[in-house]
Amino acid sequence: MKRIRPLLAALAIALLAAALPAAPATAASRDGWVRLAHMSPDTAAVNITLSSLSGNVTLFRMQNVGYGAVSPYMRLPQGTYALAMVPTGSNDPNATPVVSGSVQVTAGKAETLAAIGKNAHLKTIEFTDDLSAVAGGEARVRIVQASVMHPSVDVKAGSTTVASGAAFGDVTKYVTVPAGSESFTLGSGSDAQTVTERFSAGSSHTLFVIDDAKGALTVSPALDSAASTVTPVGSLAAGGGGLADGTAELALLLAAVAAAAGLAGFGAMARRRGEVQHS
Q: Most CB atoms closer than 10 Å: which of 1, 52, 94, 232?
């Protein structure tokens, strides 16, 4: 699982501190966070863009995003943004997206927008992530049932039930588990799989239940928050997609600064920053 590099995080915080005027602590609550997940097994790799509704400025772009991939969090001012997923390799700017719609960013909250299901019946689900503190020595975890091969799934972390009969598209409540290595048992009919994840104390996680290349159950893990952070920590789950190395997060933070400060002429710079390709 890939995390935003510490140097980038420190630079982003410094940029925000330098660009924003002194204000009450409640000012930070005007921003929220959103991340995107590609959980459609037969949908080819896609390019994902997130744009402002006013001015159609591209704020964020990810290239060649594959099945099972989860983007880092993007910090944005509260509001509604336009999302589009276009097949990788399409050079037509007017190509029909495989997924399009809007994303609602809520002040002080973190949201995940996931594309799930087979391509012919692709849909998106949006849900809120819990970033509140976790007691020392424990971690928090939940399940998103995105398997298209198994209509319902049971998941246990050791002896703790995380999901019981979770149907496709279900998002379970968080449960607490001991920090450290934890074995998860995934079950659906005759298919029973065990995966091991490692959680640091005080961290919060989402496990997307998906299907591997043979159709067996597996998980794509995403880190929601870590004990040492004050904002969400992005993650990149294994999934064959070429996702961000951090440049896009910086572009979005700059976009957030511009939106908050009302900087004139920022649109062109945001577009240029947002279109940086990742490998």
A: 232
Domains of the chain by range and CATH?
Answer: 7-131+238-279 (no CATH), 132-231 (2.60.40)
SS (H, E, C) 233-266: CCEECCCCCCCCCCHHHHHHHHHHHHHHHCCCCH
Residues 235 and 237: their CA atoms lie apart, in Å, by 6
Residue 17 has, within 13 A of its CA and on its CB side, a CA count of 6
What's the confidence (pLDDT) of residue 110?
93
> What's the pLDDT at 216?
95
Burial class, 269, CB count within 10 angstroms (exposed 0-12 / middle 13-18 / buried 19+): middle
CA nearest to 139, candidates 98, 107, 114, 176: 176
Hey, which of 16-20, 47-51, 150-154 has the most confident mean pLDDT? 150-154
User: 1: buried, middle or exposed (CB in 10 Å: 19+, 13-18, 0-12)?
Assistant: middle
What is the distance between the alpha carbons of residues 168 and 117, in angstroms, rounded to a whole number?
9
Q: What is the mean pLDDT of residues 220-236?
A: 71
Instruction: With beta carbons less than 8 A apart as the criterion, state whether 111 and 34 touch.
Output: yes
Q: Which residue has the tokens 């019981």?
A: 164
Residue 131 CA to its chain's centroid (Å): 13
Between CA 119 and CA 44 the distance in angstroms is 9
Alpha-carbon dihedral of residues 209, 116, 235, 97, nearest 10 degrees?
160
